[in-house]
Protein 1
Amino acid sequence: MKIGITCYPTYGGSGAVATELGLELAKRGHEIHFITYAAPFRLRGYAERVYFHEVDTRTGRYPLFDHFPYTLALASKQHEVALRERLDILHVHYAIPHATTAYLAREMLGRELPLKVITTLHGTDITLVGQEASFFTITRFSIEQSDAVTAVSDYLRDETFRAFGCVQCDIKTIPNFVNLDEYRPAPDGECSGIAPAGHKVIAHTSNFREVKRVKDVIRIFSRIHHAMPSTLLMIGDGPDRDDAEREARELGVADDVRFLGRIDSVASLLRASDLFLLPSQSESFGLAALEAMACGVPVVASRAGGLPEVVSDGVNGILEPVGSVEAMGRRAVDLLRSESRHAAMRDAAVENARRYAADQIVPMYEQLYEQVRA
Ligand code: GMT
């Protein structure tokens, strides 16, 4: 099949999933056309059957445009690429504005090409941004107009029905997946050098937005740090980074917290970690948690959103209510002190991640593409 993919190309789970999906589909013989305003960050180097079409945003210098109409430029590009490359499917990730531009592109094609539009909902497009008054109606409309809609968890599917009604749509849950060749546990004896010898290594990766509660990450770590020598790796960047740095100084743990900034490939850092913290306000899925588990790292997370679908409390991680830093910290310390329990959780985490292997999940998308084309 010839498949166009539009996503946010910079850092973020939806862009990561969309790009990995494109690469997996290309490996399976499909022709993939990324239509985005920059090369997707997980698209590294040449891959057979993968093409990138850049949405030109430079024309925004026209003086009339205080705000460049990016959405129109994207819809035009999707239409142009679909027509020229004879696409069968246009699969857009994150509803706003991608489901709307895809709808426009398909309508512009009319009878010239029977393009089918698939929208994958990822998280804040439904739980936050899509519910703002200025986006609500157009988001619901665009979802309903898609030929098929998927959500990355049952929680997000149910939340879409609850918030939007969406009476005309049948939303299918297709969970996120992980590339187990890249995200795999460390072989015995692998040494990282990322922390002083004898330190437990704790990791967090995110876009440091409010929803991630990065100050809670520091507070949980501070409890671990009081109990044992440990280092926290803060991977990523975003608006709440300063707050997190301040919290680390105020709690007296700054010397053992390493803010590493944005890193494209985090697998080696995860492999070197003993525990992963994700105390978010909400997560539709928590791709970062899945990638940590695939590397054999148990996860301490909030019992919120779709996280309980990915992390099983007491089996491959720890779940506590949002904001319960005391309980999260205490249970993290207990786990790290017990070598046998930690090893068991580590194995369970790897086992759990296998359920989300690319070769389990990607065929679900292929099946959906076949269905909408039939
Ligand atoms: O919603 C966001 O904060 C960003 C979004 C994204 O586009 O990166 O993340 C969402 O999609 C990821 C991939 O499906 C999920 O793993 C994240 O849980 C989800 N984030 C939230 O729901 C907060």
Protein 2
Amino acid sequence: MKALLVVDVQNDFCPGGALAVPEGDKVVPVINKLLEKFSIVVASKDWHPHETVHFQKWPVHCVHNSKGAEFHPDLNSVKIQQVFLKGTSNKDDGYSAFEATNLDLVKYLKNKDVTELYVVGLATDYCVRASALDAMQQGFKTFVVRDAVAAVNVNPGDDQKAFDDMTRGKVVLITSGDVK
Ligand code: VGL
Ligand code: ZN
């Protein structure tokens, strides 16, 4: 079975949000089209407490239960079968969806006989990268859909660095047209 993992398509990571990814909202229509091609769809949410060491590196964003932590309003979120909450501790960043604390993502996917994971969303250079590398480590054949991700790019070229890291980690980079 294949599954789609939608990473952190939340208001705070989109233009106008507290930690906006340039053109972060451009991934939304691409993801909405991809949603139709999967029978198993899960999503992660960055879901921080009010105070966390994470906010020493980043502006305050995606505080649990806030407007900024909601999915982008145009994301077809009715297709999402389970949400995984991460970054919930006040002691670490929790970038990877596999660090979710409400449910175990590996167990959830393996229970549904998922062997191939397609990763999309925000941000390429943090949570997408960390989630894709963890997925490979956990034994999933892992794909990242290049036109369905966008990067923060704190430093120019961070997106390319992330793609290089993922390729080195045996993650396969594809475009949305490649998904059957
Ligand atoms: C993320 C920076 C801080 C992400 C989360 O979702 O990629 N980036 N927190
Ligand atoms: Zn965060």
